Amino acid sequence: MAVWLIRVILYVMCFILAFWAMNAWDFEKILKPGHTRQAQVLYWLIAAALGYLSAQFVLGLIYMK
To answer: Is the pTM of this model over 0.70?
Structure first.
């Protein structure tokens, strides 16, 4: 039970950290004007992917044998 809870907390923390870090990036410069909904979905997907990869990296370091 404790291992599952640690993993969930780590995934959420890494997602929040990735979302926060992406605020430094000027995302509108590379997107087409008028495509706000698609830009928001892409932003969330990139943050989720970065959060997942970061959490997997940390978990790999923690459980490395």
So the answer is: yes
Q: Which of 62, 55, 49, 54 is nearest to 9 (CA)?
A: 55
C-alpha distances out from residue 32 to 21, 39, 48, 61, Å? 22, 9, 22, 39
Identify whether the C-beta of residue 36 lies closer than 8 Å to the C-beta of residue 65.
no
Question: Residues 30-55: pLDDT tens digits?
Answer: 888 888 888 889 999 999 999 999 99
Q: Are 59 and 6 in contact (CB under 8 A)?
A: no
Distance separating alpha carbons of residues 65 and 63, to the nearest angstrom: 6
